[in-house]
Write a structure and sequence with these properties.
Elements: E1 5-11, H1 18-31, E2 35-40, H2 55-66, E3 72-75, H3 77-80, H4 87-97, E4 102-108, H5 109-114, H6 121-127, E5 129-133, H7 142-148, E6 156-158, H8 168-176, H9 187-195
Parallel strand pairs: 1-2, 1-4, 2-3, 4-5, 5-6
Bound molecules: adenosine-5'-triphosphate (ATP).
Adenosine-5'-triphosphate binds near residues 133 and 168.
C-alpha cells in the first residue's frame, strides 16, 4: 500500500490569509497530498519582537478558513505544547503517531531561507520534504539551497503558484485602519476580526 502523504502547513497565522490558502491548495494539487494539517504556532520564537495575537484567536480563524475543505484539519499540537514552538518537535510527534507516512512541510520562500536558523534543521530534513512557493524572490539554485542546509536541494519541490503579493503584516495594517479585508482573508475570517476587534489601532 502506498504511504499516506500529509501536507504540514505551519504558521503564526496572525491572521490566516488568502496567501496561506493558495499556498496549501497548490501544494496539495501539485504534490497529490492526501490531506493538509494546519498547525498554528503557540509561541513563535522567530517572531519574538512583536505582540502576537492570543493563540485561541489565531486558531479560531484557521478553523473558520479551512472548514470548507474536507481534507484539511487544524491541529493544536504547538499550542498545547509548553515552551517555544519548534517544527522539528512537531514532526517528531507526527512520525511517532503515524509511522511510515510521508510529511511535506509547506512553506513560502522566506521561511525556506530562514531554515538554517530553525531548531535542528538537518534533523528536520530527515523528517519532512519541503514544498516551497516563490515569494517575491527567485527560485534558489541547488548549490544555494545546499549551502543553507546540506542536502536541502534534494528535499525541495518548487510550486508553480502565482505570487500572492501580501503578508499577514499588511492584513493587520489594513484591519487597524478599518479598511475592508475582502480579497485578503476569507469572509468568515474578516467577520471574526471585526467581531473580536482584532488589530484595532491604539
Ligand atoms: P507576517 O506578515 O506576520 O510575518 P506571514 O503572512 O508571512 O506573516 P506566517 O504565518 O508567518 O504569515 O506564514 C506561514 C507560512 O506561510 C510561511 O511559510 C510563509 O512563508 C507562508 N506565506 C505567508 N504568506 C504567503 C504568501 N503571500 N505567499 C506564499 N507563502 C506565504
Amino acid at each position: 500500500m502506498a504511504a499516506v502523504k500529509h501536507g504540514v502547513m505551519g504558521g503564526t497565522f496572525d491572521p490566516v490569509h488568502i496567501g496561506h490558502m493558495k499556498l496549501a491548495e497548490h501544494a496539495q494539487q501539485e504534490l497529490g497530498l492526501d490531506d493538509v494539517l494546519w498547525i498554528t504556532a503557540g509561541d513563535p520564537w522567530r517572531k519574538g519582537d512583536r505582540n502576537i495575537t492570543p493563540a485561541r484567536h489565531r486558531l479560531a480563524m484557521v478553523q473558520l478558513a479551512i472548514e470548507v475543505y474536507p481534507s484539511w484539519r487544524a491541529s493544536t499540537a504547538e499550542i498545547d505544547r509548553p515552551g517555544p514552538t519548534y517544527t522539528v518537535d512537531t514532526l517528531r510527534e507526527l512520525h511517532a503517531r503515524q509511522d511510515g507516512d510521508n510529511f511535506t512541510l509547506i512553506v513560502g520562500q522566506d521561511a525556506l531561507e530562514d531554515l538554517p536558523n530553525w531548531h535542528e534543521p538537518t534533523r528536520l530534513l530527515e523528517l519532512a520534504d519541503l514544498a516551497v512557493a516563490v515569494r517575491g524572490g527567485r527560485r534558489l539554485p541547488p548549490e544555494e539551497l545546499d549551502s543553507l542546509v546540506p542536502g536541502l536541494s534534494g528535499r525541495v519541490t518548487w510550486l508553480s503558484m502565482p505570487p500572492v503579493p501580501f503578508s499577514a503584516t499588511q492584513v493587520r495594517s489594513l484591519a487597524s485602519s478599518g479598511a475592508p479585508l475582502s480579497g485578503f482573508v476569507p469572509k468568515s475570517v474578516e467577520a471574526y476580526i471585526r467581531e473580536h476587534q482584532l488589530y484595532r489601532a491604539g
